[in-house]
Amino acid sequence: MRGVKIQGFGYRGHTWGSSVYRSLPVPGGLLAPSLRSPFNFPRGSLRGSLTKLAYYSTVQHKVARVRSFDHSGKDIDNEPLYEISVQEEITARLHFIKFENTYIETCLDFIKDHLVNTETKVIKATGGGAYKFKDLIEKKLGLKVDKEDVMTCLIKGCNFVLRNIPHEVFAYQKDSDTEFRFQTNHPNIFPYLLVNIGSGVSIVKVESEDKFEWIGGSSIGGGTFWGLGALLTKTKKFDELLQLASKGQHTNVDMLVKDVYGGACQTLGLSGNLIASSFGKSTTADKEFSKEDMAKSLLHMISNDIGQLACLHAKLHNLDKIYFGGFFIRGHPVTMRTITYSINFFSKGEVQALFLRHEGYLGAIGAFLKGAEQDNPNQYSWGENYAGSSGLMSTSPDVSPLQRTRSGTFDMLEMDRLERPLVNLPLLKDPSTYIPDTVDLTDDAMARKYWLTCFEEALDGVAKRAAASQPDSVDAQERAEKFRQKYWNKLQTLRQQPFAYGTLTVRSLLDTREHCLNEFSFPDPYSKVKQKENGIALKCFQSVIESLDSLGWEERQFALVKGLLAGNVFDWGAKAVSDVLESEPQFGFEEAKSKLQGKGRSLLEGPPHKCALIFADNSGIDIILGVFPFVRELLSRGTEVILACNSGPALNDVTYSESLIVTERIAAMDPVIHSALRDEKLLLVQTGSSSPYLVVIEGMGRAIHTNYYAVLRCESLKLAVIKNSWLADRLGGKIFSVIFKYEVPCK
Amino acid sequence: MFLINGQSQPIFPWFGLDIGGTLVKLVYFEPKDITAEEEEEEVENLKSIRKYLTSNVAYGSTGIRDVHLELRELTLCGRKGNLHFIRFPTHDMPAFIQMGSEKHFSSLHTTLCATGGGAYKFEQDFRTMGDLELCKLDELDCLVKGVLYIDSVGFNGRSECYYFENPTDAERCQKLPFNLENPYPLLLVNIGSGVSILAVYSKDNYKRVTGTSLGGGTFFGLCCLLTGCSTFEEALEMASHGDSTKVDKLVRDIYGGDYERFGLPGWAVASSFGNMMSKEKRDSVSKEDLARATLITITNNIGSIARMCALNENINRVVFVGNFLRINTISMRLLAYALDYWSKGQLKALFLEHEVKFLFKICLMAKYKS
């Protein structure tokens, strides 16, 4: 297994392959992943054998673009609606990798070959290893190694991950179904306490980006566990000591309260199992104690002590968030468990012990940020790339040693720069408690099993669709297969370790699939399907409008809602639908209407809304024959409409750029839409930005898998057609039932 | 039966037991004002017990009388006499009860007052094996009242409470008496096998703030495992000859000097036993070094927790008591130093001449008096 990973450091190896792939010479230009300085190297951990490297690169990847044809004087009927092209785009990416020091030379060679910007002559480094490899780095790269303060780097890194990575923080609960309980990111991360348990313990209070203070520490830390443990048990390795500890019985070595008080504990109301004196039973020269028992006792002693001090400091400074890090914690369930126990005990449940998914990278990230101050990455928003990141690995003894080795020796995290920061919709009633996702699949084992199977079953179809979307590319088949393989592996990982990337949700499964598709240059596998469906639907637009206009007011309202819902049947993401669409290409709007179970209600009673915000779902019939007639009705009533579509492609969801073309074409046919566009009564946006009085959220992904429970400050309508029989069952309905959730905020 | 102050007094012998996790502490009041009449009436049993206890300094293989702690010519419940302090390991408790049974202790119709967890644990054994009823007293109550009482009594004319002046200066550091006339509020840190920390606001108003399992039992237990020693005294003796800086990783070992960013001095311990992560260093340290490091680790930790409690409770006087500090000057001076250094002189560490729970007996008698 190690061999494979190390290959990763070559230029073509398996693990590294993902990055290399994107950066291989492509027709029309040669672009390497430009490792732009400043980057930082290395941060040796106390393990002494691992280096963490953070660097910034620009990554070239493909994006799908749509462009309207000039239709003047042409036969529109036989032309596709718009032109689709795949273009190269360069985006920024942060890479964080962790590897054994043995491979440092290979790594340095790689960097040397890819280093493009040589303006910076300095490399920022932190940690003990910074000294160790100083000469080597300076010689190989011709750069000056600049040492940065460990704790400053650690805190900078910590702030960065807390701000940018969703579900970065988790609480550990060994004895519940979900070992890892992820926390929703809070907009305000300060103040907090960072307890770093390296060889000793540092307790730092962080009040803002630049303001932090060492408020205490303890010499009893990871080094004590390791050093004293090695003396007591003759076991040399830290990991082995933890293994021993997880098998031991501390009660053979520790003096418990019940050993002092005897059976009277119950009548006295004492907890007999509390430790009265650590190692209190080993006060004799003539008894042998097992290695396991001693290691366990030592683990408890140290964890309890650290927890107690952390609580005392938290109390003194009135803080309730404590993040734990350092090699003592680093992904070890054994220590996370004992620390959590200790914090609960000493704070009487008032303080929560919190851990970070990327704790091991904090120093490297911080050193990187120190070096990148001119081009401050903090001014951008970054998102975790699920395709390129290894994810959190459980190191608990019951996970196979193979995976343990893997996480211990090679691991990576990639973050892509987002084009714009993601913000909460200002209309949320309580943004701080907003959790988009309806079902937590980390928690709900049954739902998890179902959805993972669902995504597995759909995978062949998606891969096929991806290959078909690029008929002119010679290697499309091969890349589609690689995509299939990669996503399949991700799904298998998630089956075993659902917590690998934070809380598992339907949304994160979808995102992971998009990241994997992008990884293999399939920016928009459904582009052709969408193009065709948009074309077909546009042709029907006018007749749909005519038939609606022929109805009386009340009848029309029902028909509009029914149309909205029927349009939402056309979803390639739902297997029940894609099966129909594959086998009955002529399946149309009327057929969809007849599939619907139940009926909606009229929405537009009462005085007209001033403004409405609509989050639209699918391309084709959905947006053109479902959403647009509804938009048109709103506009005719004097309501301004903001139509929000996805920025990037996801299945057959309509993208912002597609919506622009579609709207333009509709405007050409329809005077209502035309004048609304002209007068800016109809706005097309990528995110909601105005102040609407009605929010319409359409589709399963937006209104059921997420946002179902979101409470807004204005009227809202969440509507979708349930296109999944398992989900329908769960909700107590039939497939193609309608969700129509209209909410008025309480005054 | 227990009316005192010239009206009546407890029946001799006057004993008190503090049965801790590791050690049993026994106090015995030897009346020195026995009248001829009393002497005649004194049953043979009682006489032999008195003779046995006062004429020996060691009992069996593990019992020891701390002669240097003896309080002479003390007036207690209207009687003059000497107070003796005897200790033996808790695991010899069954033998002690057995002895009591053989010597027909029960025929003396005395009530044994006892405190500590063992008062509960061994209550049934006393009853069945020794035919004795224990009078159990709350441990923390005894502790608090004992501290306050002993200071009022004094130690053979000297002050019971003392502190170290200039604890941060090895040359000028000296032990000086401290007047505990206005004792409140004070933080009371009792270091036995484990550690209990109490905030005392008045004689009757105190609370247990917290405790830690890293106490005297941990020092002794770890020393036994690391060095093969078998007594606490042996462990302390070893510690006094060792060098903990060979075992511990200091701030200067990591940063080459002070860590200025955080204001940490180079001599501070960064990681207890941190050097022992390396095999070469493990092979090069002595048992004495290990014993010293264990002592320093435990002591520093207690100091650190005590300091945090003092800050949280807003108390600036910390009284350290407990058997761990008996003959343990290294720890006392380190506690004094650590508290002074890390609090920038705001906190004062105080100590008592007597292991205070030894003193609970006095407090107990005082209790009967009132």
UniProtKB/TrEMBL annotation, chain A:
UniProt GO molecular function: ATP binding; hydrolase activity; metal ion binding; pantothenate kinase activity
InterPro entries reported in the protein's UniProt record: ARMT-1-like_metal-bd_sf, ARMT1-like_metal-bd, At2g17340_3_helix_bundle, ATPase_NBD, PanK_long, Type_II_PanK
Primary localisation category: cytoplasm
Domain Damage-control phosphatase ARMT1-like metal-binding: 455-733
Gene Ontology cellular-component terms listed: cytosol; nucleus
PANTHER family in alphabetical order: 4'-PHOSPHOPANTETHEINE PHOSPHATASE, PANTOTHENATE KINASE
Protein name: 4'-phosphopantetheine phosphatase
Organism: Zonotrichia albicollis (White-throated sparrow)
Lineage, top ranks: Eukaryota, Metazoa, Chordata, Craniata, Vertebrata
Gene giving rise to this polypeptide: PANK4
Automatic annotation (TrEMBL), chain B:
Domain of life: Eukaryota
InterPro entries per record: ATPase_NBD, Type_II_PanK
Pfam families: Fumble (PF03630)
GO MF terms, alphabetically ordered: ATP binding; pantothenate kinase activity
GO biological process: coenzyme A biosynthetic process
Annotated GO CC locations: cytosol; nucleus
Record's protein name: Pantothenate kinase 2, mitochondrial
Organism: Zonotrichia albicollis (White-throated sparrow)
Lineage: Eukaryota, Metazoa, Chordata, Craniata, Vertebrata
